[in-house]
Amino acid sequence: MKFLRPLTSASMTVMLTLSGIALSSPVQAQDTTETRKKFVECVNKDISKENAEWKLPESELKKLKNIIDREIMKEDTLPKSQRDEQRIIENIENAAAKELPGVDRETLDEVVETLRASGQHCFVAVRQG
Q1: Which residue range(s) make up the domain with 105?
Q2: 14 inside domain
């Protein structure tokens, strides 16, 4: 009887990675959607808190949250780089400027700054579970 040589850590990593890809592909897509939903909830919670300072009417706050939700959920995953993050924030900023014409530029700038800070802290919070 011929014995197999023991697996090295490198070969075990490759096997686990390959089996993980094969087994978790459908689950990953579901987890990504769920992760993005949690991310949006976290960001929207921060936006609601900051609105005490901005004093946006409830209808405009709701529109802003819908814009954030729409822009983040249309992506396949959460931002993977600063470039991705910047593109999403620019999309939110542009949509907010169009859909919330009554909101002044200074307030939109504050919203963008809040999005940047909130995005970073929510990304970490969601990834940690």
Answers
A1: 31-128
A2: no
